[in-house]
Amino acid sequence: MSNFTIENVPDSYIKGTNNHDLYIYDLKMVDNAIKTKVNLNMHMFSFLQKGKKQVHFADRKVQVDNSQSILIKKGNCLWSELLDTDEVYYCKLLFFSEDKLKNFIKKHINKKVSTKNIAPYFVIENDDYLSSYLNSLNNITTSSSKFMIDLLSLKLEELLLYLLNKYGELFENYICSLVLKEESVFQSTIEKNIYSSLTIEEIAFLCNMSLSTFKRNFIKEHDISPGKWFRNKRLDKAKELLEKGNLKVSDVYLDLGYNNLSNFSSAFKTKFGISPSQIK
Predict the structure, then answer these.
(1) CATH assignment of 6-177, given 3.30.565.10, 2.60.120.810, 3.10.20.30, 3.30.479.10?
(2) Distance between CA 248 and CA 245 in Å, rounded?
(3) CB environment 173-208: b (16+ within 10 A), e (fewer)
(4) Among 43-52, 153-162, 172-181, which is the least confidently predicted range?
(5) Per-residue pLDDT tens digits for 114-130
(6) Could you count the other beta carbons within 10 Å of the beta carbon of residue 238?
(7) Residue 2: what pLDDT?
(8) Is residue 106 exposed (0-12), middle (13-18) or buried (19+ Cβ within 10 Å)?
């Protein structure tokens, strides 16, 4: 399908353990990881300690720094993990199964909540309580002993209760949305990424489709290949931006999916008969 591999998370991080409901993992990196193609098999808290994390979902993207943490819904996404000035990236990850979440909701949420138009992530502002909470997780090992498994289950419940108290209905609606079956995101993903820098392969992945399936569905819907369709839309947008006179050619091409100025200029001239630098 593409030149980059799919990373199955948390499977690629955690091996040799029998507990499939809860995992803790310390992720440390000394190199940037740009747009890693991730199949996230469990819901995940990412408690960022050093660096920045950017995540592309089907219809939106989000970036957090070390003043924030993020809860991410299981599914396909693209994420970039970026080093800070200390040249290190570090976050503590907490993975939990849908069964664990369903048990929590059944126990603590006794009313019907609104789950329409909920984002696939929830950004958490770090505070003293969360700092203390993370310190307490340092004492929990990845042992498969019943004691550690039960302890970690209690720590997950503690965290979810704290966030319910902190964010109220917003967080309540979010965690309830995690256990609902998601509708097709094909068309909304296309519309949200017309002018993004994502490749066709990356957009197909975010639609939970192989590249061939995505192309077949796209042609059926639009009567044109996705490559030509996105190229025309992005070049039209580039022309519109340049005609306004506020941006240089070098300010435009990267944001519209071109890796270098030469390829952009060539495609622009082929479509419009003039180079982008001739736009006035």
Answers:
(1) 2.60.120.810
(2) 8
(3) bbbbbbeeeeeebbeebbebbeebbbbbbbbbbbbb
(4) 172-181
(5) 666 788 999 999 999 99
(6) 26
(7) 45
(8) exposed
Q: What is the mean pLDDT of residues 244-271?
A: 84
What is the per-residue pLDDT across 128-155, written as a single tens digit (0 to 9) for each? Answer: 999 999 999 988 866 667 888 889 999 9
Hey, what CATH topology would domain 186-278 get?
Arc Repressor Mutant, subunit A (1.10.10)
- Among 157, 160, 30, 132, smallest CA distance to 84 is for 30
Angstrom CA distances, 197 to 121, 190, 230, 239, 276, stand at: 21, 12, 11, 16, 18
Q: Which one, of 12, 35, 38, lies nearest residue 25 by Cα?
A: 12
Report the amino acid identity of residue 43. H
